[in-house]
């Protein structure tokens, strides 16, 4: 996996962030989802590296990045702080401005990062999410059943204990319970996800990510709405046509409420777009990331 990429860590924003870097050209930051790591991009990394300098990073609390202890308000794992990590990482690698391709939890970090750092993010592709505030405020019974982990991970102490006791079972239950099952994931990728979730502090880190999303992150989102702040960079959103987002939400409508320049559509996939239909994702996302205005 990641042939031609180098692997390293950088201390930024008080934490050590693990990443791989490869390719050449404009900077492109890749942010992963839950309960995964940057390895989720292994099927598209080489294709992206033909056009961009690709930086695939592990979010704090995930992968081989640091997993700092949190605070009562969960600010340590707020998307604002996690976004600051990534801006500082890209700056340390020489990119004052860069593009973003992000999935799931990483897409929530990217959303906050692009609002907070208007001069840093040039354009952005987000995969299989609607805005966090919209998803919480519009939660239905069907959504809660499908995204049970959103609510399980908020509980104090218990989820960390259960996950750390059997991280492989947690990964197989969460990832295998989606529409495509475990079929899209290579043996090597699954082994990496299990290895990383088995590390000390990993279960705590992912729980704190979700606790922040249900608390302090929503406060920041409401402040944006009250102040009339919107995502200013060009935004492209995709969601899995076989997944949950399009079933329970109207993704484009919700993104139009918080972004000034947005387009998007469903793709023939479940939740894990980059691993289920990598060739389709490259075909759909690369022209937009290169700056094409007529790709839709």
Verbal overview:
With 296 residues, this protein is α/β, with parallel strands linked by helices. The chain has a single domain (6-290), classed as Alpha/Beta hydrolase fold, catalytic domain (Rossmann fold). Helix content is 44%, strand content 17%. The protein contains 15 helices and 8 strands. An 8-stranded mixed beta sheet has the order 1-2-4-3-5-6-7-8, with helices on both faces. Strand 5, helix 3 and strand 6 form a beta-alpha-beta unit. Helix 2 (79-92) packs across helix 3 (104-116), helix 7 (158-165) packs across helix 8 (167-176) and helix 7 (158-165) packs antiparallel against helix 10. The two termini are 31 Å apart.
Keywords:
8-stranded mixed β-sheet; alpha/beta; Rossmann fold; 296 residues
Kindly report the name of the CATH homologous superfamily: Alpha/Beta hydrolase fold, catalytic domain
Q: Can you tell me the residue ranges where pLDDT is under 50 for at least 5 consecutive residues?
A: none
Largest sheet: 8 strands, mixed
Helix content: 40-55%
Helix-strand category: alpha/beta
Q: Within the largest sheet, what's the order of strands?
A: 1-2-4-3-5-6-7-8
Distance linking N and C termini: 31 Å
Rg result: 17 Å
Percentage beta strand: 15-25%
Q: What is the fold named in CATH at topology level?
A: Rossmann fold
Instruction: Give me the CATH architecture, please.
Output: 3-Layer(aba) Sandwich
Question: Strand-and-helix sequence, N→C?
Answer: EEEHEHEHEHHHHHHHHEHHEHH
What is the subunit arrangement here?
single chain
Mean pLDDT: 97
- By CATH reckoning, the class would read Alpha Beta
Tally of strands: 8
């Amino acid at each position: 996996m990641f042939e031609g990429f180098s692997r390293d860590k950088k201390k930024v924003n008080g934490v050590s962030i693990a990443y791989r870097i490869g390719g050449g050209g404009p900077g492109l930051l890749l942010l992963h989802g839950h309960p995964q790591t940057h390895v989720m991009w292994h099927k598209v990394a080489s294709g992206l590296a033909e056009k961009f300098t690709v930086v695939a990073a592990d979010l704090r609390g995930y992968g081989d990045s640091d997993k700092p202890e949190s605070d009562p308000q969960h600010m340590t794992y707020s998307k604002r702080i996690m976004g600051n990590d990534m801006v500082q990482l890209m700056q340390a690698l020489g990119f004052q401005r860069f593009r973003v391709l992000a999935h799931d939890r990483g897409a929530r970090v990217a959303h906050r990062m692009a609002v907070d750092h208007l001069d840093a993010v040039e354009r952005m592709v987000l995969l299989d999410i609607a805005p966090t505030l919209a998803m919480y405020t519009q939660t239905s019974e069907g959504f809660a059943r499908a995204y049970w982990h959103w609510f399980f991970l908020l509980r104090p102490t218990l989820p960390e204990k259960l996950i750390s006791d059997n991280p492989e079972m947690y990964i197989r239950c969460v990832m295998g319970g989606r529409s495509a099952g475990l079929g899209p994931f290579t043996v090597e990728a699954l082994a990496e996800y299990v290895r990383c979730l088995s590390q000390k502090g990993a279960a705590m880190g992912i729980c704190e990510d979700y606790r922040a999303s249900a608390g302090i992150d929503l406060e920041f989102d409401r402040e944006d709405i009250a102040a009339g702040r919107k995502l200013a960079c060009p935004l492209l959103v995709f969601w899995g046509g076989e997944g949950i987002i399009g079933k329970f939400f109207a993704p484009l409508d919700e993104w139009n409420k918080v972004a000034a320049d947005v387009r998007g559509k469903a793709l023939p996939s479940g939740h894990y777009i980059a691993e289920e239909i990598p060739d389709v994702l490259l075909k759909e996302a690369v022209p937009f990331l290169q700056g094409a205005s007529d790709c839709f």
